[in-house]
Structures are given as C-alpha cells and as structure tokens.
C-alpha cells in the first residue's frame, strides 16, 4: 500500500539528518559521504510512496537500475524535484544517489530551521572569519525519533516501514554508533540494524557507496605514505 505523506510532515531525509546530528555541537556524523546518505533517504521515500521501483535482475556498474513510476505531482517540492530526476532517464542507483544528494545538506538544514527544529547562528571571528553554528531546538521531537529506533534495535519492536528505513540508512551510513549514548552499541544492535539495511535496496546502495568512498580514501592515504 502506498504511504501518503502530509504536506507539513517531516520527510525521511529530515528525520535522518536530525538523528545524525550531535545534540551539543551540531556536527553531523558521516559528513564525508553525507550526500550519498541523504540521496538514499530521498530515493527510499520515493519508493515508500510507490514512485520508483528496481528490478533485482537489472544491475550494472552503478548498481540496480531505478525505474520511475508515473503518478500525480508530489506535494513536497524536494520529492517532486527528485522524482523528476529519476524520470529523466534510466540510471543506476549509485548515479542517482549523487545526482539527488549533491547539495541536499543545505536544503534539508534550511527546512529544519523553517520548521523550528534547528536554529542557526552566524558568528564572526576577528571581524573576518565567519562560521555558522547549528543547535537542535526541538529536542523532544528528536528524542521521540531516537526512542523509535531504540525500540527496534534494543527491544526488538517490529518497525513500521519508515522506522525500518531510518535504521537501515543509519546502518548503511556507518553513523549508528554515534547514537551510543542513547542506544548502547553492541553486536546485537549491529546485527539487527544490518538486517534492516539488507532488506532495503536504497540502504544497501548507500552502504556500497560509502564503502567505496572509504576504500578510495584509504588507498589514497596509503599511496601518500608510501610515496
């Protein structure tokens, strides 16, 4: 059954970014590969809404091919934009992660600020250098998200499709351990999260992209050392 999203309901990608953000410092876990993770969250949401599909037997160098499923225009402009990208032509999921996820960080942060969930402040140092600090304002909303994830990973609660997707994407991005203060990291938590990651083609694609990036960074670092 296709899941309907209310116009003012946070998207999966917004919830995911909140979970990846440190409550005190405002830093985001997995920054180096964040565009893959956010792009994956948008693709997964399109899948939950019945707007994309993949053929498990149709894979290329860039992963499973993602097919657009026609439908009425989507209410949310972020989802509508991503839906349009998918519909342009048939591509592998890895390519779409980049095309959808690039530049998405700022867009999602702005949406969370507009919702009153985050506050951003610009600061200047020595009158020259400027930086932006981010603070979580709606801590109760994030606590509720964490509790849903904790219930699935620690208490073995049966997740709904949205929570299962959140857990799978957190696992795929490698950022789940950053929640260790609320969800103690353990072998049991790791295995449960991996189970949910592996049943989602979107989360699996994120994992593959992150692992390839980490491998490339490691290879580059090793080459630099040896040279």
Approximately how much helix is present in the residues? Answer: 40-55%
Indicate how many domains the architecture comprises: 1
The ordered H/E elements are HHEEHEHHEEHHHH
Task: Please tell me the overall pLDDT.
Answer: 88
- Based on secondary structure, the structural category is alpha+beta
The CATH class turns out to be: Mainly Alpha
Strand order of the largest sheet: 1-2-3
Q: Beta fraction of the residues?
A: 5-15%
CATH architecture verdict: Orthogonal Bundle
Any idea what the shape is? Answer: globular
**How many angstroms separate the termini?**
56 Å
The unreliable regions are 1-6, 220-227
Main sheet?
3 strands, antiparallel
Protein architecture, described:
The chain contains nine helices and five strands, in the order ααββαβααββαααα. The protein is of the alpha+beta class and 227 residues long. The chain has a single domain (12-217), classed as yeast vps74-n-term truncation variant domain like (yeast vps74-n-term truncation variant fold), CATH 1.10.3630.10. The protein has a three-stranded antiparallel β-sheet with strand order 1-2-3. Strands 4-5 form a two-stranded antiparallel ribbon.
């Amino acid at each position: 059954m296709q899941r309907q999203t209310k116009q003012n309901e946070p998207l999966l990608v917004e919830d995911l970014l909140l979970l990846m953000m440190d409550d005190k410092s405002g830093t985001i876990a997995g920054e180096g590969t964040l565009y893959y993770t956010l792009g994956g969250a948008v693709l997964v949401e399109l899948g939950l809404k019945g707007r994309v599909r993949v053929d498990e037997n149709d894979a290329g160098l860039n992963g499973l091919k993602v097919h657009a499923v026609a439908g009425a225009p989507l209410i949310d402009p972020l989802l509508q934009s991503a839906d349009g990208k998918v519909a342009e032509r048939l591509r592998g999921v890895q390519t779409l992660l980049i095309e959808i996820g690039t530049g998405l960080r700022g867009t999602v942060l702005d949406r969370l600020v507009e919702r009153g969930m985050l506050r951003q402040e610009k600061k200047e140092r020595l009158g020259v250098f400027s930086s932006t600090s981010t603070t979580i304002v709606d801590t109760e909303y994030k606590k509720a998200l964490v509790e849903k994830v904790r219930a699935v990973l620690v208490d073995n609660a049966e997740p709904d499709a949205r929570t299962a997707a959140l857990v799978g994407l957190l696992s795929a991005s490698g950022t789940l351990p950053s929640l260790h203060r609320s969800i103690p990291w353990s072998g049991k938590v790791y295995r449960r999260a991996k189970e949910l990651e592996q049943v989602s083609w979107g989360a699996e694609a994120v994992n593959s992209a992150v692992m390839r990036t980490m491998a490339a960074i490691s290879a580059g670092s090793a080459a630099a050392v040896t040279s």
